[in-house]
Model the fold of this input.
Amino acid sequence: MPTSLRFLFLTSLLGAAACAAAHVLTFADIAFYPIYLFLPLLFLVWIFAVWQMRRVPRKNLISEIFGDVPRWMKVSSALLFAYVFINFFACIYLLDGGNPERMSDQRLVLKSKGKILRDLTPAEFRHAEAVQIRMLTGHLLVFFTLAGFIFHACWLKTGPAMANAKISSLDSV
Done:
């Protein structure tokens, strides 16, 4: 794998690992807010992912002559997309469609569109903050991982990865 592609691949995997760690912490009601710093990195990674995909000729994307995208990557991508939707709707359900906020009078509330849904205890507030971060980290985790899959697929469809490619239809002849 070329150095520039390897750097982008490793960056996306390290971003995914950091988001996975923050995601796991939310299940212990720990909201790791520094994960917001990964948002600009995600945008940069995806700009480069789209740029790399545009460099692969269109015919190479579906051709078996060039390295085939492994089945595990296709299945994992589908599962990740399913997880993003399940995680999003589960978090919305857990938050009753609102967001945890600390009011000016130091009350802890769950608020939606300017309306206070209910008052929260400190433990419930910590849990609601963790669920809110879980929603974000679930998305970040999935999109960093998918960017890593794109970089790997770009490597398979271009360069030296083609030398090891096998054509399934010619193997039977």
Remarks:
- The radius of gyration is 21 Å.
- The chain has one domain: 3-164.
